[in-house]
Amino acid sequence: MLVTDKRLKISGNSLIGVFARCTEKVVLVPHEVAESDRLTMEAALKAEAVQMQLSGASVLGSLIAANSSGFVVSHHAGDKDLEILRQHGRAARLPARINAAGNVMLVNDSAALVHPGLSAKACETIEKTLGVPVEKGTIPWEWRAASPIRVFWFIRVLPRRR
Fold first, then answer.
1. How are strands ordered across the β-sheet holding 90-93?
2. What pTM was estimated for this model as a whole?
3. Which helix (H) or strand (E) is 38 found in, with range?
């Protein structure tokens, strides 16, 4: 399938990062994604689309943090949710009151920058599940809309400067 520039919407919303989470192997999408959009995502991302919900919620991008090793999810995730994810890598619930895992972690295959309010136990779970060192910190406001390259630099370079 030839992928062209196409705008997608999930549940009528063009902020697909709220609803979908992608790794190198899989893109997690809610059940309500149109078949044509699911196929477009698979082709564009060269990843298998897996339709699911997390505890009945469609905002997978907000509730799941992931890299090529695994998935860390909201503590509300059910056993069936974890079973689906474990078909594609390690999976664990975030043992924290702050539980929108996709919103409180910036993760790649080298490191994780996490919300400073996460506990030591939560950080240990992230390290073990995703196989990366964890740093607590924040991203300055002006960086929140930064390019992925700047965010990658932030995670990879700044921790080494300490």
1. 64-66, 70-73, 90-93
2. 0.83
3. helix 35-45
Q: Which of 111, 148, 136, 128 is nearest to 71 (CA)?
A: 128
CATH fold of 16-161: L-arginine/glycine Amidinotransferase; Chain A (3.75.10)
How do strand 112-114 and strand 105-107 relate by DSSP bridges? antiparallel
Bridge partners (DSSP) of residue 65 are 72
Residues of the chain with pLDDT under 70: 1-5, 140-162
With H, G, I as helix, E, B as strand and everything else as coil, classify residue 51. Answer: strand
Q: Which residues pair with 135 in a beta bridge?
A: 113
In the chain, where the domains are located:
16-161
- The type of residue at 117 is G
Helix (H, G, I), strand (E, B) or coil at 117: coil
CB 102 within 8 A of CB 61: yes
Strand-pair category, 112-114 with 134-136: parallel
* Joined tokens for residue 124: 């240990």
